[in-house]
């Protein structure tokens, strides 16, 4: 029996057709069989059995009772190490539980392991992790990247090593790997989920989200990790609807925006064809199609690669070897301790971004880069605001290509950064986005369609994805 | 201009501005709920936020915001309804985040001013440029181990107000008056405890010199002065140093200096290589702070009477001199004590001067002798008022009053009780007094003769004898009257 969905598993457990122990054993054995994927940084069977035992003793019956969920190793967890994929935190055990994982625990989830990621979530391939590459489960002959930065979570869901996974998305780190691995990935509105206990990359962009195998599961999980947290000043206090109960396939009366600026020369026909096909499918469902303009789209990538590294350069200053994490043994002065600890503790891509960020914030450059970028960021937000006066949601490809082989683009950061070209604008605007598998390449690799909507209208993109999924099936 | 300083060749004017760091009086830190108690065991008041653990986020402490606004109102300053917290990035072992959260371009408080009293008649306005909130750093302890430095994060994250003045001061004395006045205002507002010894209030001083009328010279900054004495000493030294350099044909290089309190000289703190680029940018973990009128108006209601107003009241309503009023208001606790006396004894308002005298002479001296602060005075304002009233009503003599006063200090009881227990009440009854007088005159009949023969100086002797006989309880005025009657 193949178990691959939360909503079914909830029923199986309720009807006592399966115990939570059996359910989790099923996934434990799959994880063990798929070690070669390197989806997990931390996987501890004993710990899982302990969680099951205490859950059985607790006699609670919350919504996610016994559901095995994988956690991106950027969320701090009290009973498992948290590394951010970095040597500098390779032996770090937080004495606290992130808001999001705490919500999952309270709902009865089993945290089945910590998944691999690009170091400090910086990357689009999960190749910058101190703990090695993760392999895309959809690879054919050559090992492909799962995308990134939440590549381990995307791969774990794709290979059915768990029933769902958390991710974080700063510029596309959920939607892009979801697209590469053929699963659903949602990045909610900035402020829907608390960032408390998530290791910061770029604070004004970081947002927790979900990977799942189907829209229903996505809707269930996203509700459970959302919610106001007074410990995160950027968390927004709104009522979280039951997205799952509210799911509605009906597209009649909906207008779909197709941004002309996303038709970028050089994008493969396979991607463009997938996009056109999706538009037709939506049209068939009763939606009106409208060409819209997001005029500042072309600045999104450069703006992102100023703001995100700027914030990162400051956020990562705390990894100095003084209080926790890795410290070089060879220092002879305070300055040398910083230099050696950070030189040895951070990987190449993280260092590159710290340097970029430090540069753009420096006296004499700050106005030209950071301030300018913030202004353009506002314009990008306005683009979306205007667009959502004309349409209910926007449909674009999730990525400019399908998954590429591991090792490719490693020496060319710019071509790596272009992976985020379709996902970054929504991150800058703080609006929700979802990537849903739609179509395949000629090599049978998954492609993803991105659906974007206005702030705090997660239901809109879930409904649209729900429709698309139903047609696809 | 009486502030000019004579060099060897020219007369010079010093231009002085201050940056004061005042620790906000608050139970918890600026962005965390850890305690701010001074002198606790190292690292016992450190939250996950204060230690900058991964994934931790700052949350603004509303009370600290209120305290800053209250201070702004007390400094007659503009309250900025929009302000931003920025990150000031630099590495140091006692700075866990690798940045200090501060306010750079958009501080919470804008232009204000305070007045200093140059002398009895003359006041001077010192403009305040801004006040902003920021986090304090932890402490590096270099003296615990010969090879290691330890870090204590108890102070990490405590709220500071940085109050910046315009370069409006022209002498060390003016700088001292400014910091005294500022300290006094903060203590009246209860927004800073003003304890300079514990570092709750410390100042950076910017100094330059110029020939009168010239444009501003290059300034040097002396960091981290924590007493008014040192502020004066450091400024004096620095003025002399700068004049010396310029008069010898040299130029002042802009520099950050430390004042060595042992030798009394200033020294450069860091060299240029280490000049910091702090890379300020708005903290993305914190939304800009937006204040509305209602919030500010609520705080306005909490503003107490401030030193300037209080002084006016003393002069106008209580007819106190400028001098006496200044003594009272310069220390809020003293002034509060004085007010408390008058609140308990409204009838003493006419005799406010006598109350001031008792406080500034007897009370001050006995407190000083016993090393006590006036807030811990064993003699309550109410009891002091009672004592003064007993003197005014001539129930006791001034001499006896001083005895009672000392007894009150020891026993903490009311003067009435002491008088009753010890039978110290003044003798005002004519018959009782006459009895004593008769006795004295009889036993000194020779002196009475001498008096009657014109040696009238002897009156004092008789008064003294009567006082002695009455154990000091006799009313001296009455004795004089009765003696005169009997002898003449």
Write the layout of secondary structure elements.
The complex is a heterodimer of chains A (473) and B (488).
Chain A: H1 6-14, H2 20-33, E1 40-42, H3 45-58, E2 68-72, H4 99-106, E3 110-115, H5 151-158, E4 164-169, H6 175-181, E5 184-187, E6 207-212, H7 215-225, H8 243-246, E7 255-259, H9 269-284, E8 288-292, H10 300-315, H11 334-345, H12 348-360, H13 367-387, E9 393-397, H14 413-417, H15 424-429, E10 433-440, E11 446-453, H16 458-472
Parallel strand pairs in A: 2-3, 2-4, 7-8, 7-9
Antiparallel strand pairs in A: 1-3, 4-6, 5-6, 5-10, 9-11, 10-11
Helix pairs in contact in A: 2-3, 5-6, 7-16, 10-12, 10-13
Chain B: E1 5-6, E2 11-23, H1 62-74, E3 82-83, E4 86-89, E5 99-102, E6 112-117, E7 123-135, E8 139-141, E9 150-152, E10 159-165, H2 172-189, E11 201-210, E12 220-225, H3 228-247, E13 255-260, E14 265-268, E15 281-282, E16 289-290, H4 293-300, H5 307-318, H6 322-329, H7 332-344, H8 352-369, H9 381-392, H10 398-411, H11 415-422, H12 430-443, H13 445-452, H14 459-469, H15 476-487
Parallel strand pairs in B: 12-13
Antiparallel strand pairs in B: 1-2, 2-10, 2-11, 3-16, 4-5, 4-15, 6-7, 7-10, 8-9, 11-12, 13-14
Helix pairs in contact in B: 2-3, 5-6, 7-8, 7-9, 9-10, 12-14, 12-15, 14-15
């Amino acid at each position: 029996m193949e178990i691959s969905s939360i909503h079914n598993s909830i029923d199986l457990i309720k009807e006592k057709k399966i115990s939570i122990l059996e359910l989790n054993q099923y996934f434990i054995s799959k994880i063990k069989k798929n070690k070669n994927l390197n989806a997990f940084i931390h996987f501890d069977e004993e710990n899982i059995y302990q969680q099951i035992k205490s859950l059985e003793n607790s006699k609670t019956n919350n919504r996610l009772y016994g559901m095995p969920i994988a956690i991106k190793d950027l969320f701090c967890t009290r009973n498992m190490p948290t590394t951010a994929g970095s040597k500098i935190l390779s032996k770090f055990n937080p004495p606290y539980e992130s808001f999001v994982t705490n919500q999952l625990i309270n709902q009865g989830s089993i945290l089945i392991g910590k998944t691999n990621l690009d170091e400090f979530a910086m990357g689009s391939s999960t190749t910058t992790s101190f703990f090695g590459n993760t392999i895309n489960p959809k690879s054919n002959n050559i090992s492909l990247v799962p995308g990134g930065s939440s590549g381990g979570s995307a791969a774990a869901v794709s290979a059915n090593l768990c029933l769902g996974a958390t991710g974080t998305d700063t510029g596309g780190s959920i939607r892009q790997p979801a697209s590469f691995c053929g699963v659903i990935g949602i990045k909610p509105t900035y402020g829907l989920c608390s960032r408390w206990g998530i290791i910061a990359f770029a604070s004004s962009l970081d947002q927790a989200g979900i990977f799942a195998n189907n829209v229903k599961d996505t809707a269930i999980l996203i509700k459970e990790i959302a919610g106001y947290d007074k410990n995160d000043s950027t968390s927004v206090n709104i009522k979280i609807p039951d997205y799952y109960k509210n799911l509605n396939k009906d597209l009649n009366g909906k207008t779909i925006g197709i941004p002309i600026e996303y038709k970028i020369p050089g994008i493969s026909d396979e991607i463009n064809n997938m996009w056109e096909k999706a538009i037709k499918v939506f049209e068939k469902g009763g939606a009106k199609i409208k060409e819209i303009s997001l005029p500042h789209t072309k600045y999104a990538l450069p703006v992102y690669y100023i703001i995100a590294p700027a914030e990162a350069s400051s956020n990562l200053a705390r990894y100095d070897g003084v209080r926790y994490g890795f410290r070089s043994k060879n220092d002879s002065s305070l300055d040398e301790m910083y230099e050696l600890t950070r030189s040895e503790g951070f990987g190449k891509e993280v260092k590159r971004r710290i340097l970029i960020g430090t540069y753009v914030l420096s006296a004499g450059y700050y106005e030209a880069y950071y301030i300018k970028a913030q202004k353009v960021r506002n314009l990008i937000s306005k683009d979306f605001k205007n667009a959502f006066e004309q349409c209910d949601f926007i449909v674009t490809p999730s990525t400019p290509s399908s998954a590429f082989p591991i090792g490719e683009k490693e020496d060319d950061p710019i071509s790596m950064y272009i992976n985020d070209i379709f996902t970054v604008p929504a991150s800058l605007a703080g609006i929700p986005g979802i990537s849903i598998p739609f179509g395949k390449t000629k090599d049978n690799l998954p492609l993803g369609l991105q659906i974007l909507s206005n702030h705090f209208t997660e239901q809109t993109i879930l409904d649209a994805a729900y429709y698309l999924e139903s047609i696809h099936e | 201009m009486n502030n000019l300083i004579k060099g060897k060749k020219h007369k010079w004017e010093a231009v002085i501005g201050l940056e004061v760091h005042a620790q906000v009086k608050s139970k918890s830190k600026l962005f965390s709920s850890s305690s701010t108690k001074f002198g606790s065991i190292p690292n016992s008041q450190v939250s996950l936020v204060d230690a900058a653990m991964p994934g931790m986020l700052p949350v603004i402490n509303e009370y600290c915001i209120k305290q800053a606004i209250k201070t702004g109102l007390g400094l007659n300053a503009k309250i900025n309804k929009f302000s931003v917290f920025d990150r000031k990035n630099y590495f140091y072992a006692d700075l866990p985040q690798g940045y200090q959260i501060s306010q750079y371009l958009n501080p919470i408080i804008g232009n204000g001013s305070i007045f200093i009293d140059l002398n009895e008649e003359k006041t001077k306005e010192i403009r305040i440029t801004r006040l902003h909130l920021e986090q304090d750093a932890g402490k590096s302890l270099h003296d615990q181990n010969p090879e290691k430095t330890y870090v204590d994060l108890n102070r990490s994250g405590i709220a500071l107000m940085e109050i910046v003045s315009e370069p409006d001061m022209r002498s060390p004395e003016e700088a001292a008056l400014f910091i005294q006045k500022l300290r006094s205002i903060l203590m009246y507002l209860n927004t800073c405890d003003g304890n300079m010894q514990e570092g709750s209030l410390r100042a950076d001083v910017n100094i330059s010199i110029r020939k009168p009328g010239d444009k501003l010279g290059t300034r040097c900054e002396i960091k981290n002065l924590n007493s008014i004495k040192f502020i004066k000493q450091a400024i004096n030294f620095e003025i002399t140093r700068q004049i010396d350099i310029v008069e010898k044909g040299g130029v002042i290089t802009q520099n950050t200096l430390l004042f060595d309190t042992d030798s009394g000289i200033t020294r450069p703190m860091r060299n240029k290589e280490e000049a910091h680029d702090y890379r300020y940018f708005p903290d993305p973990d914190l939304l800009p702070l937006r204040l509305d009128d209602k919030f500010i108006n609520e705080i306005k209601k909490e503003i107490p009477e401030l030193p300037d107003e209080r002084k006016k009241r003393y002069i106008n309503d209580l007819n106190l001199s400028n001098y006496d009023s200044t003594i009272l208001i310069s220390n809020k606790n003293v002034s509060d004590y004085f007010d408390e006396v008058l609140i308990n004894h409204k009838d003493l308002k006419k005799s406010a001067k006598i109350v001031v005298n008792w406080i500034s002479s007897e009370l001050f001296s006995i407190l000083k002798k016993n090393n006590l602060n006036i807030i811990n005075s064993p003699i309550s304002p109410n009891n002091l008022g009672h004592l003064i009233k007993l003197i005014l009503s001539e129930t006791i003599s001034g001499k006896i009053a001083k005895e009672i006063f000392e007894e009150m200090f020891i026993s903490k009881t009311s003067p009435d009780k002491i008088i009753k227990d010890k039978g110290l009440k003044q003798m005002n009854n004519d018959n009782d007094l006459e009895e004593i007088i008769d006795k004295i005159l009889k036993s000194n009949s020779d002196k009475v003769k001498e008096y009657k023969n014109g040696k009238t100086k002897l009156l004092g002797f008789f008064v003294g004898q009567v006082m002695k006989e009455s154990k000091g309880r006799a009313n001296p005025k009455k004795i004089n009257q009765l003696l005169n009657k009997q002898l003449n």
